[in-house]
Amino acid sequence: MAKAKSQKKAAAIDMTAMCDVAFLLLTFFILTATAKQPEPLPVDTPSSTVQTKLPEKDLAMLTVGNGKVFFGVTGKDVRKRTLELMGTKYSMTFTPEEMKRFSQMDGFGVPMTQLKSLIAKNSAERNQKNLQPGIPKDSLDNQLKEWIYNARIATDEVTGGRQLKVAIKGDAKQEYPQIKKVMDILQDQKINQFNLVTGLRGEDF
Q: What digits encode the pLDDT tens for the residues 47-70?
């Protein structure tokens, strides 16, 4: 007599545990991630096929657009020390809270007389359109030169002798004399090597 064949059933996999782990990981990354801060001066950089990466530390970024220049330097400790040196230069004192808030700013573009009020604002308020007029760079009040000079000193002191590198991020529509003026300020301080930030485009064939 033939034996009755047992009916095969599809195996079921319980995905509950895997879903729980996935949601836990997702929650962890969301809570620990740092939101990218908007740029204080958005610029449309010129295109280039060069793929050289900028240094991630010991870097000063000079953003040029609409006739304005913004300045930023990497490293919270370097930012604090740079602000201290600028305060000494312009006879200004900053509270520990102001130092801390300034160390969290990626870049800015105001004269020293407006810096305290800018520091007091939150990130969204700082990035309002046309709020920051740019750092003075004319011959009578060349504060940009002082920021670069003191950032170099701060980098040397904080890092134990490393040199500050400089990058210029200019808008593609910015007239050349404005970029040339920034280059002249760098060359006056014997900075003859610096990076020009560009956007990546495909090679022409």
A: 666 677 888 899 999 999 888 999
